[in-house]
Structures are given as C-alpha cells and as structure tokens.
Design a protein that fits this description.
Belongs to the binding-protein-dependent transport system permease family. Keywords: Cell membrane, Membrane, Transmembrane, Transmembrane helix, Transport. The N terminus is likely disordered. The radius of gyration is 25 Å and the shape is globular. Helix 3 packs antiparallel against helix 4 and helix 12 packs antiparallel against helix 13. It has a two-stranded parallel sheet with strand order 1-2. The protein is about 75% helix and about 0% strand.
C-alpha cells in the first residue's frame, strides 16, 4: 500500500537529484574536451606544484587539527577542571570565523611591520631583518596553521561526542588494571574514537581542499586557486574543468582511502548515559594546565581575531556604515534565505519519498542529491557555468532565429546562478537535518494516516511536517549560515556589479584593507554564531 503511494513521486525525486548532479556531469563532460593550449601548458609547467601544494596543505591541516582538537575534546569529555562547562561549547566558536579573516589578522600582527616584530626589535635593539630570525607567515605552513585554527572544531565536536559515549565500565576497568588518565587515554579512549577522528579528519581535508581565500591571500598556489586563475586569466572553461576534475579525484581518493583503511575495524560497546560518565577530577597544576590549554586555544582561534575585528570596526565605523554595506547585506540576506528555503523543500520531498517507499531505488535520489556538498565552491562554479553558458547561448540563438533580439546572459549574468550554486552545494545539509528528524517519527503514524484515507500530500502536510519542525528549522538555519559564508562560488559566479558580504570582505582583505570591511566581517561572524549556539543546546538536550 505504501509502495503504491510512492510510485507517482519517484519521477519527482529522480528529477530533483538529476538537476542537482547535472553540474558534476557537465563538468566531467567538459573536462574530456581537448585543450592543449592552456591545459597542456599548465600540465608541463605548474600543475605538479598545484597538486603537491594541495596534498601537503590537506595533510598538515588534518595533522594540526588533530593535535589541537583531540586533547581539548578529551579534557572536556573526561576531566573536571575550572571552566570545563564553558569550554564545552566555546571551543566550537572558531567555526564562525572565516579563515581568510584570521589569516589577515595574524599576518597583520606577525609580519615585519606588525606589533609583534616591532616589540621584539625595540626590546633587543635589532635594526634590520638580518639581525634576527622570524618565521614567515605567508607560506604553506602558515596557511595550514590558519586553517587548522578555524577547522579543528569539526574534529573536536566528533571526538568529544565519541569520548562521552564510551562506556564508563571500560574506563573503570583500566583504573583497576593500574592505568592512570594518560594511559587510559592512549590505550583505550583514543583507539575507540578512531572512527570519529577519521570522519572529522575527512571533513577537515575537504574543507581545506575547498578553501580559496586563505591560500590566495598567502600566495600559495593550489588546485583551488588554479581553477580560479585559469578561468579569469586564461578564459578557458575546458582547462578549468580539467583542473576541477583533478581536484575531485583527489578528494574522492582521500575519502576512499580513509574508508579502506578502517574497512575491517569493528567497534562494539555499551554507550554511557550522562550519569555514568567516568570523570577524572584534576587539581593543582594539572587543572591549571587544562584550563590554560583550552583558554589559550579559544583565545588564539576566536577571541583575538574577533577583538581585533571589533577594534577595526570601531575605528572605521563612519567609513563602513554606508549604502554599500546595507546593499551587500541585503544581497546576502535574500540569496541565503531563498537558497535555504529551496534546500529545505528539496530535503522534505526527497526524504518523504524515501520514507513512504520501501524500494531501495527510491533511496537513491536523496543520496545523489547529497553529493553536491563534496564539491568545493570553485569546482561547483565551473560545473554550473558549463550547462548554464550553453543554455544562455541556446536561448539567444533561438531568439535570433525567431527574429527577436537576443536577451543576453539571462542565467549566467544574473544572481539566479548564485542561488542555484548555493542550493546544489548545501542541499545535503538540509537533507541530513530532515533525515535525522524523520528517524524519530514512528512508522505506525504513517500507517494510521493511510488507514484514515490520507493521500501522500495530506500525509506530508498533516502528519510529517508538524513533526519535522525542528529538523526543518535546523536545516534552514544551517544552510542559511553556510550561504552567508560561502565565498568561492559567489566570487566566480557573481554578475558584474553584484557583491554580497563575503565577496565584499574578501575584496578588502585582498587589498590589505580589512579595516574598512571589518563591520561586514563581524556581521558574518555573529550570524555564524547562531547555529553553533543552537547546536550546543541540541547536544545538551540530547545528553
């Protein structure tokens, strides 16, 4: 009976999934076209450097994030020390800070003319750069540190959850065997948290591969910057598509390697309830060290950049509070709201189809639609440009054939293309949020609704949507914030004269004038704090 209801919806689901993966298909097709002039030149000169830098950057960012996040996660999950309850949620705050803003702040602090080196020269009497050594910030290693400071909460959140869910009886068994906190962490907690750490590391690596602004500001050539430069400097869509395909292969190979490495790993344990958590009480020097570590991490990754942004915004408020600020804020607002609303509708439809149909084939559209999140913004932009450009040309050719004047670039020359890019990239977030809410709805409610004569739309409207409100709101909120922060896709696809807050701030960062864009950057950060607060409250409620 439920299967019969789903048959009419399958076409809708596959159509939505096809539209979402169309840029990926178009990108692969475009990359197969010959382009010896541009891509051949890149292949013989700088492509190995692009690939090498990308791989090294991902490796160092993942390692750095693990080194930063794992101790903090274990401390707040397994130890009691002053400030622990604050650090549990506060260590998520760096996710709201754009990496390129952090990069600019630390470059301004640490370069030769910055306050740190000026103070050192004044204190020791140094006169020239030859008198002392100070590490260069704008390097691949510097970019890795900046990205690790922003991305480590991905690993921290997953690791903290994994540590908290580990059985208290196992931890107590290690105590009986004479293991102290350090041995218990190294021999028990860390190995059991490996799946969570692997997933977090994969997320960090994908975010690193997708980063454009930080590596561009630090002048570190990677595949992401290569796609951007190839399109804007050489004007070759085919060469850009080839580079994008290489980047996708790197990402998929990395994720596949991670899954292959733990293919035989199995983990069985009794999950702890909150009251059963085995907490180590730290005192004296150990408690001070734990508090100092978490406080220092929070200060370096969030508080210091945010305080400097506030100083910039206060000092340049008169210049920043202008019509451009309001115009670009409105652009960010309406594009993000529209894209998030579309993503939520797509998530509801695809998950409803999966819900009412037991056929395995009807679960495929939601999985296909979730692949867009794996595409970096630059790659997605090139994938969208390929079919949209051809469609624009086809519309103009048809108009001229019918004797009308061509309408011009009505798709690629409008903000509509940015909405499409955001929808494709972040639909997976809405799908995941709604899927999580669907798991809490008993299937017996569906059968009761069908027994009472409800049609599919009635079942969705009267039964499911009221019960999905939290998941819908969470998905809407998370997609909205991601759209507000997304830079590479907006930078590549924006029509002439169009700016949003992300591109507006990036222009000032590129011109070494973040002071004038600090107010806009603060808006992005403050808006980004909303889902983090919501996420923390949800975790506290679940625990």
């Amino acid at each position: 009976m439920v299967l019969g209801l789903a048959k009419g919806w399958s076409v809708v689901g596959y159509t939505l999934a096809l539209l979402i993966i169309m840029p990926l298909i178009a990108l692969i097709a475009q990359s197969l076209l010959p382009d010896e002039a541009v891509f051949g030149h890149l292949f013989n000169t700088v492509l190995p450097t692009y690939i090498s830098n990308s791989l090294w950057l991902m490796l160092w960012v993942v390692i750095g994030s693990l080194i930063i996040a794992v101790p903090a996660a274990w401390l707040v999950a397994k130890c009691h020390f002053p400030g622990r309850r604050i650090f549990q949620w506060a260590l998520l705050l760096p996710l709201a800070m754009p990496a390129y803003v952090v990069a600019y702040v630390y470059t301004d602090l640490l370069d030769y003319a910055g306050p740190v080196q000026r103070s050192l020269r004044a204190a020791f009497g140094w006169q020239t750069p030859q008198d002392y050594y100070f590490p260069e910030v704008r390097t691949l290693g510097g970019a890795a540190i900046m990205l690790a400071l922003v991305l480590f909460p991905y690993i921290y959140l997953l690791a903290r959850t994994a540590f908290m869910e580990q059985s208290a009886s196992l931890s107590q068994a290690t105590r009986v065997m004479g293991c102290g906190p350090w041995k218990s962490f190294w021999r028990l907690s860390l190995p059991m948290a490996r799946p969570a750490l692997a997933v977090g590391g994969a997320l960090v690596a994908m975010e690193t591969a997708a980063d454009f602004a930080t590596v561009s500001y630090f002048a570190v050539p990677t595949l992401t910057t290569a796609v951007y430069d190839t399109w804007f400097e050489y004007g070759s869509l085919t060469a850009a598509a080839k580079l994008s395909t290489i980047m996708l292969l790197v990402i998929f190979a990395m994720v596949g390697f991670e899954r292959f490495a733990r293919r035989k790993q199995k983990l069985f344990q009794k999950l702890s309830s909150p009251g059963e958590l085995d907490i180590y009480s730290l005192s004296g020097a150990k408690a001070f060290a734990a508090t100092a570590y978490c406080a220092g991490l929070l200060f370096l990754a969030f508080l210091l950049p945010f305080i400097i942004l506030l100083q910039y915004a206060y000092g340049y408020f008169a210049e920043s509070w202008n019509e451009e600020f309001f115009e670009y804020s409105f652009n960010s607002l309406w594009i993000s709201l529209l894209a998030s609303a579309i993503c939520v509708v797509i998530g509801i439809v695809l998950m409803f189809i999966r819900r009412i149909s037991p056929r395995q084939a009807d679960a495929l559209p939601s999985r296909l639609a979730s692949t867009g999140y794996a595409l970096p913004g630059t790659v997605l932009a090139i994938g969208i440009l390929v079919p949209f450009t051809q469609l624009d040309f086809a519309i103009n050719d048809l108009a001229e054939y019918l004797g009308f004047e061509g309408p011009g670039l009505i798709l690629t020359g409008s903000s509509f293309i940015i909405v499409c890019a955001f929808t494709i990239r972040f639909a997976a977030i809405a799908i995941g949020s709604i899927e999580n809410s669907y798991k809490r709805i008993s299937p017996s409610l569906d059968m009761a609704g069908i027994t009472m004569g409800l049609k599919p739309l009635g079942l969705l409207r009267l039964v499911h949507i009221p019960l999905l409100r939290k998941g819908i709101f969470a998905g809407l909120l998370l997609v909205f914030i991601e759209c507000m922060k997304e830079l590479p896709a907006a930078l590549l696809l924006r029509p002439i004269g169009f700016e949003n807050l992300a591109t507006y701030v990036y222009q000032f960062v590129s011109d070494e004038q973040l002071e004038h864009g600090a107010l806009a950057a603060i808006v992005i950060v403050l808006v980004g704090l909303i889902p983090l607060i919501y996420l923390n409250r949800s975790l506290e409620h679940d625990n």
